[in-house]
């Protein structure tokens, strides 16, 4: 589960900038934005009388899911995986009118994985000189097949999910248990089915109600910016790394620009946060029910400004309270969840980094190899490489050295470690070197210069990372060999 | 192995007294060998600025950037040994190994150099070598294993 979470966030995190770019463009240039431009916002017609396509629609429908697909594919199977994943995801995207994030999150890793398995079938069996031909055609055929399969498999499923969620919300509204609707609305939102729910179900019903009574609560079930704001505020205070630093900008685009989509990836990265948004949504709707508050017309986009503009005088207190309480509830729950998460997964990583920093100092003082066996042993433990009480589960088969160009240091480090491992008698361990930009996430251990380790971590979140400051003679190499003795015992010569 | 590392690429002792001079010296050997254009030497300085090429065990491996690969005509490696330690960002360097690598042609010899330098006994032997020729023989000997 932990690994699944890091994988999701690994797919989404590197693309947050693209979400923000889309959010800015959308907030500014759509028909209801402050600077409506048809050509960008995708409304109205051009000079030739054709409807404007705009940037907003194609970006969310194609660009963002494809970016996620490329990253997901790359994490599973390098650039080759990325190419196959993007093609396959394209089939999924056109299978429905909904933005296809769910499809990208599932199809991309799957497609790259399929490619990897298929490549294994004829690995090493291709006649020299035909590799390019076979590789390109096999990837092309697999990608085409997956795109077609995705088109037929995902379209009906996602449409059915969207319809089912819509019907569910419809039923709940009919039966007057509105707060419960959040259980369906919030997950549907983060899967980018927000418009399907809002414009497909809630808005038509709301318009009817508003025609009869002058206002409708239904306009605010989905458009309340409170729950999303709570998530982003929680990330601002208790998040980590890039998610934390981008959350403030995202909060502005979300709350004042009304582009809710900007917070969806923050939830997708840690799906458990749905608990927070659902609770926030429930509290928000509950408040509206108690105060009998609603909006005159749909608030589009769902910014606090648009919401207040559509609030009739009598509902003002109820609407404001609903937004504030929804945000507070979602913030509190998400904060606790993020903090728990940090304690569980984070402490170890932080501790390791600290140890590594300590180790860096130690070994530069100690100098070259003057350390005795015992000192090396101590250093290893200090470096956090060896956790005697916490052995890793599986054997290690792939170790990769990464450096900037993949030309010098990583090649030398890989040779040294390969030599050490060979001398120790392990035959089932592959040691390679690559440029850091080509790292994939299917590696067991990644060795990098300490300056590059943070970057390597983002490239391959699920691998075990080892930092060195000395490629020729790092004590970490001996630590890795020691660890192999525990994890790969069956690979030792005695049993082979 | 062929012409990636030949005797003419080895200089004992080097004349440089500073890191910058040493990079220039190792680079010039590659230029003289016809392996790289003079622009590659500038890229070696560029590369050195981002992350030090000090490797440990008295060894530094100045080389160009990924973008400078166009300046490489063929893969080559140069070796300079210094009598006095060179200050390489606070580390002592006695060997500067200049690298120009395209299409991984240099990886085999580089790997062997790495293995030699990872063993301090071997490094001592390299330090004790009395001439460029002797140093060359020591490095070549690795190939026999």
TrEMBL record, chain A:
<keyword id="KW-0472">Membrane</keyword>
<feature type="transmembrane region" description="Helical">
    <location>
        <begin position="272"/>
        <end position="295"/>
    </location>
</feature>
<keyword id="KW-0762">Sugar transport</keyword>
<dbReference type="InterPro" id="IPR003501">
    <property type="entry name" value="PTS_EIIB_2/3"/>
</dbReference>
<keyword id="KW-1003">Cell membrane</keyword>
<protein>
    <recommendedName>
        <fullName>PTS system mannitol-specific EIICB component</fullName>
        <ecNumber>2.7.1.197</ecNumber>
    </recommendedName>
</protein>
<feature type="domain" description="PTS EIIB type-2">
    <location>
        <begin position="397"/>
        <end position="492"/>
    </location>
</feature>
<dbReference type="InterPro" id="IPR004718">
    <property type="entry name" value="PTS_IIC_mtl"/>
</dbReference>
<dbReference type="InterPro" id="IPR036095">
    <property type="entry name" value="PTS_EIIB-like_sf"/>
</dbReference>
<keyword id="KW-0813">Transport</keyword>
<feature type="domain" description="PTS EIIC type-2">
    <location>
        <begin position="4"/>
        <end position="339"/>
    </location>
</feature>
<feature type="transmembrane region" description="Helical">
    <location>
        <begin position="100"/>
        <end position="116"/>
    </location>
</feature>
<dbReference type="InterPro" id="IPR013014">
    <property type="entry name" value="PTS_EIIC_2"/>
</dbReference>
<keyword id="KW-0808">Transferase</keyword>
<feature type="transmembrane region" description="Helical">
    <location>
        <begin position="315"/>
        <end position="338"/>
    </location>
</feature>
<dbReference type="InterPro" id="IPR013011">
    <property type="entry name" value="PTS_EIIB_2"/>
</dbReference>
<feature type="transmembrane region" description="Helical">
    <location>
        <begin position="77"/>
        <end position="94"/>
    </location>
</feature>
<dbReference type="Pfam" id="PF02378">
    <property type="entry name" value="PTS_EIIC"/>
</dbReference>
<keyword id="KW-1133">Transmembrane helix</keyword>
<comment type="function">
    <text>The phosphoenolpyruvate-dependent sugar phosphotransferase system (sugar PTS), a major carbohydrate active transport system, catalyzes the phosphorylation of incoming sugar substrates concomitantly with their translocation across the cell membrane. The enzyme II CmtAB PTS system is involved in D-mannitol transport.</text>
</comment>
<keyword id="KW-0598">Phosphotransferase system</keyword>
<feature type="transmembrane region" description="Helical">
    <location>
        <begin position="12"/>
        <end position="31"/>
    </location>
</feature>
From TrEMBL, chain B:
<keyword id="KW-0418">Kinase</keyword>
<keyword id="KW-0597">Phosphoprotein</keyword>
<keyword id="KW-0813">Transport</keyword>
<keyword id="KW-0808">Transferase</keyword>
<dbReference type="InterPro" id="IPR002178">
    <property type="entry name" value="PTS_EIIA_type-2_dom"/>
</dbReference>
<protein>
    <recommendedName>
        <fullName>Mannitol-specific phosphotransferase enzyme IIA component</fullName>
    </recommendedName>
</protein>
<dbReference type="InterPro" id="IPR016152">
    <property type="entry name" value="PTrfase/Anion_transptr"/>
</dbReference>
<keyword id="KW-0598">Phosphotransferase system</keyword>
<dbReference type="Pfam" id="PF00359">
    <property type="entry name" value="PTS_EIIA_2"/>
</dbReference>
<keyword id="KW-0762">Sugar transport</keyword>
<feature type="domain" description="PTS EIIA type-2">
    <location>
        <begin position="3"/>
        <end position="142"/>
    </location>
</feature>
<comment type="function">
    <text>The phosphoenolpyruvate-dependent sugar phosphotransferase system (sugar PTS), a major carbohydrate active transport system, catalyzes the phosphorylation of incoming sugar substrates concomitantly with their translocation across the cell membrane. The enzyme II CmtAB PTS system is involved in D-mannitol transport.</text>
</comment>
<dbReference type="InterPro" id="IPR050893">
    <property type="entry name" value="Sugar_PTS"/>
</dbReference>
């Amino acid at each position: 589960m932990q690994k699944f979470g890091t994988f999701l966030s690994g797919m989404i995190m590197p693309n947050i900038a693209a979400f923000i770019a889309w959010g800015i463009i959308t907030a500014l240039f759509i028909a209801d934005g402050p600077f409506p431009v048809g050509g960008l916002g995708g409304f109205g017609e051009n000079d030739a009388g054709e409807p404007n396509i705009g940037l907003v629609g194609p970006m969310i429908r194609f660009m963002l899911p494809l970016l996620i697909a490329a990253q997901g594919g790359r994490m599973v199977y390098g650039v080759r995986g990325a190419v196959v994943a993007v093609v396959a995801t394209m089939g999924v995207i056109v299978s429905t009118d909904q933005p296809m994030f769910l499809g990208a999150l599932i199809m991309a890793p799957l497609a790259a994985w399929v490619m990897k398995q298929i490549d294994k079938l004829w690995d090493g069996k291709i006649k020299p000189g035909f590799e390019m031909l076979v590789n390109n055609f096999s990837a092309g055929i697999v990608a085409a097949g997956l795109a077609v399969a995705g088109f037929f498999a995902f379209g009906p499923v996602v449409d059915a999910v969207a319809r089912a969620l819509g019907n569910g919300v419809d039923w709940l509204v009919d039966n007057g248990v509105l707060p419960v609707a959040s259980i369906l609305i919030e997950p549907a939102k983060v899967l980018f089915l927000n418009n399907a729910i809002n414009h497909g179900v809630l808005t038509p019903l709301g318009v009817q109600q508003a025609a009869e009574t002058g206002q409708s609560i239904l306009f605010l079930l989905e458009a309340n910016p409170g729950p999303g704001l709570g998530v982003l505020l929680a990330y601002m205070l208790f998040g980590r790394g890039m998610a934390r630093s981008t959350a403030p900008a995202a909060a502005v685009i979300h709350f004042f620009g009304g582009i809710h989509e900007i917070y969806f990836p923050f939830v997708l990265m840690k799906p458990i946060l749905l608990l927070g948004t659902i609770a926030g949504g429930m509290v928000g709707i509950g408040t509206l029910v108690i105060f009998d508050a609603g909006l005159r017309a749909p608030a589009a986009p769902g910014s606090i400004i648009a919401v207040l503009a559509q609030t009739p005088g009598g509902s003002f207190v109820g609407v404001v309270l609903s937004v504030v309480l929804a945000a507070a509830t979602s913030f509190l729950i998400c904060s606790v969840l993020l903090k728990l998460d940090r304690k569980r997964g984070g402490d170890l990583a932080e501790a390791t980094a600290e140890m590594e920093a300590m180790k860096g100092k130690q070994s530069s003082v100690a100098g070259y190899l003057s350390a005795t066996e015992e000192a090396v042993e101590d250093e290893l433990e200090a470096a956090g490489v060896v956790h005697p009480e916490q052995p890793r589960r599986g054997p290690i088969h792939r170790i990769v050295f990464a450096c900037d160009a993949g030309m010098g240091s990583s090649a030398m480090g890989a040779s040294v470690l390969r030599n050490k491992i060979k001398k120790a008698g392990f035959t089932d361990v592959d040691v390679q070197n690559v440029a850091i930009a080509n790292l994939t996430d299917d590696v067991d251990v990644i060795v990098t210069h300490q300056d590059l380790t943070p970057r390597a971590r983002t490239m391959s979140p699920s691998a075990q990372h080892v930092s060195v400051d000395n490629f020729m003679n790092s004590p970490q190499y001996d630590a890795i060999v020691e660890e192999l003795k525990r994890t790969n015992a069956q690979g030792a010569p005695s049993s082979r | 192995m062929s012409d990636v590392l030949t005797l003419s690429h080895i200089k004992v002792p080097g004349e440089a007294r500073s890191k910058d001079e040493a990079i220039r010296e190792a680079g010039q050997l590659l230029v003289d060998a016809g392996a790289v254009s003079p622009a590659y030497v500038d890229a070696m300085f560029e590369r050195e600025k981002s992350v030090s090429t000090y490797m440990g065990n008295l060894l530094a491996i100045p080389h160009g950037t990924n973008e400078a690969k166009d300046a490489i005509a063929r893969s080559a490696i140069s070796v300079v040994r210094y009598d006095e330690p060179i200050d390489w960002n606070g580390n002592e360097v006695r060997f500067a190994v200049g690298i120009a690598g395209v299409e991984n042609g240099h990886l085999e010899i580089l790997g062997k150099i790495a293995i030699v330098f990872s063993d301090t006994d071997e490094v001592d032997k390299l330090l004790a070598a009395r001439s460029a020729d002797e140093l060359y023989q020591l490095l070549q000997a690795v190939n026999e294993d």
